Amino acid sequence: MATSISPTSQSSPAALPPSVFTLPQTAQLEALYTIIRDKTTSRGDFLFYSDRIIRLLVEEGLNHLPVLPKTVETPTGATYEGVGFEGKICGVSILRAGEAMEAGLREVCRSVRIGKILIQRDEETALPKLFYSKLPEDIASRYVLLLDPMLATGGSAMKAVEVLKEQGVSEDRIIFINLIAAPEGLKAFCGKFPALRVITGWIDKGLNEKAYIIPGLGDFGERRYCE
Questions:
Q1: Contact by Cβ (8 Å): 94, 156
Q2: Going by DSSP bridges, is the β-strand pair 128-134/113-121 parallel, antiparallel, or unpaired?
Q3: Which domain of life is it from (predicted)?
Q4: Per-residue DSSP letters for 188-210?
Q5: How far is residue 51 from each of residues 22, 92, 100, measured CA to CA in Å?
Q6: What pLDDT is recorded for position 123?
Q7: By three-state DSSP, how is residue 68 classified?
Q8: What is the DSSP letter of 2?
Q9: pLDDT tens, position by position, 190-205
Q10: 38: which DSSP letter?
Q11: How many angstroms separate the CA atoms of 188 and 182, rounded?
């Protein structure tokens, strides 16, 4: 019989902000994360297994959208008292790594609208700065799934939320979805936006002196897009 080993890097759920939700910490999920963390994993395998995790995250994100009662008629002539999503949604990826999560969203949400935000560090102020954004015109009336695989200090994600709020999106209509988060980033992010929900796959031990997530998985964009 296989021995069950508790995850070594996952923070205690009791210590998380109430707006943070993690995927169920199963042995299968930890195996997927072990593969994408391994520096010897090929780019093809990294793509395949990170995509599997992204789809799980998107599915969990959809679970947090509000629904309304909906009655339909089945092919048997009977009626079924079910539910339907309350409003329209869109995805917004934080470039460039966030683009990797768009396919997972499209796989489960047919014809979903996608927006993009590019945020980079300002060399003079060392603060995150908006360089580009393209968002649906009606984004203020939609629920937004904000996509970025890594949450380290939280600077880029917080700037992205500010951009969305400036476009009229209510904080409680934003769900931030990411693969790996650092406790420091979660604390800062959730402290600034307490009404916003965060769906993360794994919470790592923390940041090192260079603000890299440890144990982490390296630069997600480079591993995803570079041979």
A1: yes
A2: antiparallel
A3: Eukaryota
A4: HHHHH-TTSEEEEEEE-SEE-TT
A5: 17, 17, 8
A6: 66
A7: strand
A8: P
A9: 999 999 999 999 999 9
A10: -
A11: 10
